[in-house]
Amino acid sequence: MIVSVRHTTTFRYEPAVRESIMEVRLHPRSDGDQRCLKFNLKVEPATNVMQYSDFAGNIVHHFDIAAAHSQVIVTAESTVEVQTAPAPRVSDCGDWSDLDAQAAGGDFWEMLCPSHFARNTPRLENLAKELGCERRGNPLALLTEVNAAIYKMFAYVPRSTKVDSPIDEALEARQGVCQDFAHIMIALVRQLNIPCRYVSGYMFHRDDSDVDRSLEGASHAWCEALVPRLGWVAFDPTNNLVGGDRHIRVAIGRDYADVPPTRGVYKGEAQSELSVAVTVSPADKSAPEKVMPVFVVRSSPPKLRSVAVRTEQEQQQQQ
User: What is the CA radius of gyration of the chain?
Assistant: First the structure.
């Protein structure tokens, strides 16, 4: 399957700001069953865009707009080939001793330790007891069970949490978005000594036959757990999916803090507005020229006029 992705992020400022420095993680990965065939990043106002690879091998673009401006538009266009793989089977999975041997023999400690958004709390411990989240049976069977349980126990409610919300907010309300559900699952399974990582990307919504809760027109998030003999397997608790035949992977990390689609700062005392529009379509079909943003985030200007530098980081919540 070959898909085209267009991700447009627009920042507007009132009044104009003096400078913006930003980094973006919007370049799909080329590994596993996925290949990024083409990628183009356009920034307005025009500026010099540079790139590097971070600790997890994600491609990061960064730029500095050093003149006054009232808006920044970042448009990433990709063509990605995703190989359709059969769903993982319990009969093909190793046991817990195989998992421990694999985890001990590789460099997985970063995906085993608590991280900024995926850490243990009393509410998480209560959920683990409620789910009976302990080592039993087969690793793949248990992970599939936890994935399905989060889907059933938590309501998907867009904008019910914020981009920097701790997992306790979703745990208390029993509702959230894909970012929250991924963090909850990661925190649960890491306590079982299963390496687990956060994945930022997109979901391909084919037609009405796919019963997906995640929003079409926004970026998406899920997690990948290390399964013995099968490698990294995708678990999407938002949509109760195992395997990633409709998931386009952009970046991986310990949690969202490692892989925000956009992160940066600006100089000025402006009120800012962020809007995001995403389209994922078959490569042989033309995408619409203009797509309405799925969500808009507004922020007030700093209360103290002496504050000259304003952060834009982590404003683009993954729905």
Answer: 20
Residue 238 near residue 153 (C-beta atoms within 8 A): no
**One-letter amino acid of 84:** T
Q: What gap in Å lies between CA 62 and CA 260, rounded to an integer?
A: 13
What is the bridge-based pairing of β-strands 231-236 and 241-242?
antiparallel
Closest-CA residue to 232 (of 128, 88, 26): 88
Helix axes 178-190, 122-131, angle to 10 degrees: 80
What span, in angstroms and rounded, lies between the C-alpha atoms of 246 and 282?
A: 11
Distance CA 82, CA 199 (A): 15
**DSSP assignment of 196-264:** EEEEEEEE---STTS---SPTTS-EEEEEEEETTTEEEEEETTTTEES-TTEEEEEEESSGGG--SEEE
* pLDDT digit string, tens, across residues 90-142: 999 999 999 999 999 989 999 999 999 999 999 999 999 999 999 999 999 99
Distance CA 300, CA 44 (A): 23
Would you list the DSSP string of 152-179?
HHSEE-TTSS-TT--HHHHHHHTEE-HH
Cα atoms in the 13 Å half-sphere on the side-chain side of 288: 10
pLDDT (tens digit per residue) in 249-280: 999 999 999 999 999 999 998 999 999 999 99
